Amino acid sequence: MRRVLLVFGIGFALALIGGWLVFPRVLYLEKPQPFDFFHKTHAEKSGLTGCDSCHIVGSDGQFAGIPRNDVCLGCHSDKLGKSEAEALLVDNYLKQGDQPEWLIYSQQPANVWFSHAIHTQRAGLQCADCHGNYGESDQPRVYEVNRITGYSRDIWGHSMSRLRRAPGDGMKMTDCEKCHRRHHVEVGCLGCHQ
Fold this sequence. Notes:
Blueprint: H1 2-27, E1 28-31, H2 39-46, H3 69-73, H4 84-94, H5 116-122, H6 127-131, E2 143-146, H7 173-182, H8 189-192
Antiparallel strand pairs: 1-2
């Protein structure tokens, strides 16, 4: 009996280690963004303090997402500093008229309907409530893509156990459900899923 328990315990421990440590390293692939972007530097140097200074939510609730080049051209018609990232932005994108192909951390699966307007305007949530404190980041985060689904790791979160989590660490359906319960909002399946 002891031998069976010992074998079971070792097998269980190996399964946990494999599932929580090894599997995510195999499942996720790191990909670089077109160039480094520093939210904190932009907030400090430009004086723009709110996310909506660059990221726009339309009146229909659609989120414009990554700012278009014309927003960047407001300050970067030419290079302002000596950083390699700024040189890439100005020379390879703004002067060429090409939009950087950013990898989107929070891109939801195709069957999810989400309105930023309902959450920010009606419910009064702040961007940091779901996305974390991007505005205070002084280094770009690593983008990790799931090799099977093609979605960002941010959709599921970085902690497999989900024990040590911070705001903006994943946007799982259970996170949405917890927030809805906390704010006493009931939504059926078709409220979020198409």
